[in-house]
């Protein structure tokens, strides 16, 4: 099956001028040019145009698109990449829809929109870190779990998290040693809290990765000012780290 330049442009929602431009810059050549000079596009060219238009919608410039397409080994790799991008775009749109629903819910409940903004994501701001440390699956599952909650459920979860931090601070200020039973009970509570978050290694019963996660979180509480501030200062965060390390080492 072939389409003229006008037919393909109409089907794709672009102009014939756009297709001629793509041809001039070597991005999309017609499948053949007739004796009359007309451009004709076959199914392979139409599929390539679909990829180009998708990448354009994702914000890539034409030079970048050319680079992406040049690196694709075969049509199967290209189609798989296309599917992944579509799925990513679908997930992004679904998150936006859920965020809009949460804002509407907050407004109906008389809540300040700014509060909804604070509670709008579980780990969106840390997506790169979560994916790098624990994989795409961990981020997607935990993020979907969070976004499925209502405003009140999110607030309740935040209150529980705040209570966990406050309890850690109280134990630290009491002068308890990180390896003492009271501190280790707090570490066990912390791990149970993690296990309630779908997608985490602790929730999925992966012992080896759970140990790494608990130790890694302890290190992050000290090394990352965003987290050490929650425990008042580096000393408080260090107490939590030492207790979690001891728990992971001896009780997991």
From TrEMBL:
Cross-referenced Gene3D superfamilies, in alphabetical order? 1.10.1660.10, Antibiotic binding domain of TipA-like multidrug resistance regulators
Q: Where is the signal peptide?
A: none
Q: Does the keyword Glycosyltransferase apply?
A: no
User: Where are the annotated coiled coils located?
Assistant: 69-110
Question: What superkingdom does the record give?
Answer: Bacteria
SMART domains reported for this sequence: HTH_MERR
CDD domains with a match to the protein in the record:
HTH_TipAL-Mta
Keywords in UniProt for this one?
Answer: Coiled coil, DNA-binding
Please report the stretch or stretches of sequence annotated as the HTH merR-type domain.
1-71
Task: Quote the PANTHER family the UniProt record gives.
Answer: MERR FAMILY REGULATORY PROTEIN (PTHR30204:SF97), REDOX-CYCLING DRUG-SENSING TRANSCRIPTIONAL ACTIVATOR SOXR (PTHR30204)
Q: What is this protein called?
A: MerR family transcriptional regulator
């Amino acid at each position: 099956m072939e389409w003229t330049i006008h037919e393909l442009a109409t089907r794709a929602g672009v102009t014939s001028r756009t297709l001629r431009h793509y041809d001039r810059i070597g991005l999309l050549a017609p499948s053949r040019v007739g004796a009359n000079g007309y451009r004709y596009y076959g199914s392979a060219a139409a599929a390539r145009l679909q990829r180009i238009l998708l990448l354009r919608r994702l914000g890539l410039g034409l030079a970048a698109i050319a680079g992406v397409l040049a690196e694709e080994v075969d049509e199967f790799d290209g189609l798989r990449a296309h599917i992944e991008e579509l799925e990513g775009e679908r997930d992004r749109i679904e998150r936006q829809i859920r965020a809009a629903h949460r804002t509407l819910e907050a407004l109906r409940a008389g809540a300040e929109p700014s509060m909804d903004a604070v509670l709008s994501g579980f780990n969106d701001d840390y997506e790169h870190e979560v994916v790098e440390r624990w994989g795409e699956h961990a981020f997607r599952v935990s993020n979907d779990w969070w976004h499925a909650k209502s405003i009140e459920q999110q607030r309740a979860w935040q209150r529980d998290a705040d209570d966990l931090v406050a309890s850690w601070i109280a134990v630290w200020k009491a002068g308890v040693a990180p390896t003492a039973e009271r501190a280790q009970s707090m570490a066990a509570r912390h791990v149970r809290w993690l296990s309630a978050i779908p997608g985490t290694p602790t929730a999925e019963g992966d012992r080896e990765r759970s140990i790494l996660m608990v130790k890694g979180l302890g290190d992050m509480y000290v090394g990352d000012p965003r987290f050490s501030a929650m425990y008042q200062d580096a000393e408080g965060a260090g107490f939590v780290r030492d207790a979690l390390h001891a728990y992971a080492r001896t009780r997991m």
